[in-house]
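Hi U.,

Before I forget, here's the chain from the pilot set. I'm dumping it here mostly so it's searchable later in email.
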Amino acid sequence: SSGTYRLNMTVIDSGGNLNITNLGTITVDAIAPNATLISPANGTSVNVPAQNFTVNASDVGTGLANGTLYVYNQTGLYNQTSVGLGGVANSLVGVVVTLVDGVYNWFYSFFDLAGNLFTSENRTLAVDTVAPSVVIVSPQNITYNNRTQLVNISASGATNVWFYNGTANVSYTAEILVTFGEGSNTLIAYANDSAGNLNTTSIIFGTDTIAPSITIVSPQSATYGDNQILINISTSGAANVWFYNGTGNTTYTTSTYQNFSDGVHTLIAYANDSVGNFNQTSISFTVNSLLPSIT
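Structure:
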């Protein structure tokens, strides 16, 4: 069994004379070393190519002679590194290996000075340095006339997706309607993977729910003695202005005279903006060209 033994040689002659000679000691070591893998943890996904493969090794017999790290990927042996240990009883061993993206299996083997071998467990490690893709499908870089917009984010290779809506981060799992503030908004989308790679994208869009203002300056709600009536419309924030003169719509760009027959008329003025917000106003007036003239 394992242990340290003393060797003695005893000689007795025919006359009964005795001689004992000490030949020294011999150590028997039949116990293999032991080792516990420390890091990286089994099944880990990392985004850093340089990894420190660490193990805690020990031997209760003759001491540790050497240890060897084995790293395999899909194509075979990727790295083999040996470390001399000089007979120590305990050692924390770390070997740094620079990896490429992929999945790896790794383990250590240790010999003691008596030649006993110990092979550790086998662990897996995934290296992923590529960030997931993330695209904002909706909203787009335009101005909308509705504050409630569909948020649609497309991501590939992501474990988690979320977005910042202008006030807080919101977890994203499927298309969702979000109410934004009036005016300019910035939507920021984020995606990460199990290795910790992060990607982000953003888009600026506007919301405009305020209709343009529109006022009929002329005619007034009065009776006119002339069939030629000045049309004067004042607007703010409008892209298009037009009016209905009783027979058809007419585009309005500047004040203009229109001929109206005698009688009661209703002038309707319209305005919209570039995103489709719409406003209108109207006024009724009377034309009586038969009014007596004043001399």
